Amino acid sequence: IEVSCNGFFYEVGYRLATDSKGVYQDAQGIDKIQKYASLFGLDQKSGVEIEEMDPHVSDTDAVRSSIGQGTNNYAPVQLARYVTTIANEGNCYDLTLVNEIKNIDGRTVYKSDNVPKNTVDLTDSQWAVIKQGMRQMVSEHTSPSALINQINVNVAGKTGTAEEDTTRPDHALFVSFAPYENPEVSVTCVIPHGYTSGNAEELAGMVYAYMYDPDKLDTLDITGNNQMSD
User: Fold this and answer.
1) Which CATH number is 197's domain given?
2) How far apart are CA 60 and CA 30, in angstroms?
3) Is this prediction's pTM over 0.85?
4) Which of 97, 98, 41, 49 is closest to 74 using CA atoms?
5) Do the domain assignments include residue 158?
6) From CA 126, how far away is CA 129, in angstroms rounded?
C-alpha cells in the first residue's frame, strides 16, 4: 500500500480468479471483487442529498480491475464513503449533508440516525496493517518537505491514477483520513486530467492545513507538478 505496488495487486486479482484446479476464471475473480466492493458501499450511491452518478464496479478483467482499472467508475463522494469505512474500521455509513433540522420554534424535527448501513468484519490486525500502509504512503513515500508532511496532523492516504484515454492526461486521485491515530475527518480529492496523483495529494494537504494548521498556507508554494508513483 505504501508504494502502491501494481504487481502485488495484480497478483491478488489473479489469485481471486484462480479456481481450485489452478485454472484462471475471470468471472470468478470479478464476482469476488464485486462482493468486496459491495461491503464498502462501492456498488451504491453514497446517500448525500444531492444528485450523484450511479457507481460502477468493474465487470471485466479481474487482474486489471484489482488496481482500480477495468471498468471501475465512481464519483468522488463514493470514494469518500469507501475511505471513511476504512477509517471507521468497518462501519460503512450513508453520507449526509444534513445532521438535523429544526422548526421555527427550535424543536428538532429530524436528526440523522448515524447508523451504519453495513459493517466490514476484519480483525484488528488487518485494519491496523491497512491503515499503517496508508500512513506510510504519506510519511515515507511522500517528500518530507510536502505540505501534507509539514502540518500539525498525521494524515493517512492513498494515491491513485486513473488512465482513461491515451490522448488525454490521466485523472489524479487521493483518498485520506486524519488524524491517523484517531480519525476525525476524511478528504477525497479528484482532479480530472490532473496528470499525477501527487497533485491531488497536494490539494488534500491544503485542506488539512486549513483545518489543522492554517498558518502553513501563508507561505505555500503550489507546484502543480507533483510527481508521484502509484
Assistant:
1) 3.40.710.10
2) 7
3) yes
4) 41
5) yes
6) 5
